[in-house]
Write a structure and sequence with these properties.
The chain is an alpha/beta fold. The chain contains 8 helices and 5 strands, in the order βββαααβαβαααα. It has a single domain, classed as 2-Layer Sandwich (Nucleotidyltransferase, domain 5).
């Protein structure tokens, strides 16, 4: 039986970090939402103490301050809970490789192996199926689809927005092309 993503389960994720390079930066917030049959059913979110001060430019971008991170768990404590929430679901994110690279860093450290879940990038997917758009930021796509979005660069708001944008992209694929299975959609989300 064909499992169509619009009717099945996927998890939309987002991480915020102290910088863009996973080898030199740490996660300060991670969030995800589970989507089942086109509906957001559960969420997981936490701030993460990176072990050092958040750079001022990241605070300006995200609104996450050092004071907000006092007493928050380290990523080593968060990762097992995140992995349990995700299970074996397909992961969806805007520029998903960035999010996976950050999670992979901790996964290798804790478990000695790579984090390689099935995943789809909404940025690449949108570029490939909506070639006439001028911009493909998450906010631009949310505006295009008239999806309500919260504060950019906060993990839960971005994870929810990504999930809703992905559902709209899936509807286009299904209604125009009859495409909806993971591997079919994955092919269209290549960079």
């Amino acid at each position: 039986m064909r499992e169509i993503l619009l009717e099945s389960t996927f998890v939309s994720i987002d991480v915020e970090a102290t910088g863009v390079d996973p080898s030199k930066s740490e996660i300060v917030e991670i969030a995800c939402v589970r989507v089942e049959g086109g509906v957001i059913t559960e969420s997981f979110s936490t701030l993460v103490n990176p072990g050092y001060s958040v750079p001022p430019n990241i605070t300006a971008l995200t609104g996450i301050t050092n004071a907000m991170l006092v007493g928050k768990p380290k990523m080593e404590d968060v990762l097992p809970k995140f992995l349990k929430f995700v299970g074996d679901s397909v992961l969806v994110a805007h520029k998903v490789e960035k999010d996976i690279a950050f999670i992979d860093k901790y996964h290798k450290m804790l478990y000695g192996k790579r984090f390689r879940p099935p995943h789809i990038c909404t940025f690449n997917l949108a570029r490939n199926i909506l070639p006439d758009l001028k911009k493909y930021s998450l906010k631009d796509l949310a505006d295009y689809f008239q999806v309500e979005h919260g504060r950019a660069h906060r993990a839960m708001d971005d994870a929810r927005t990504t999930a809703l944008v992905f559902l709209e992209l899936l509807k286009i694929l299904w209604n125009r092309l009859g495409i909806g299975e993971y591997l079919e959609v994955k092919k269209l989300s290549k960079g």
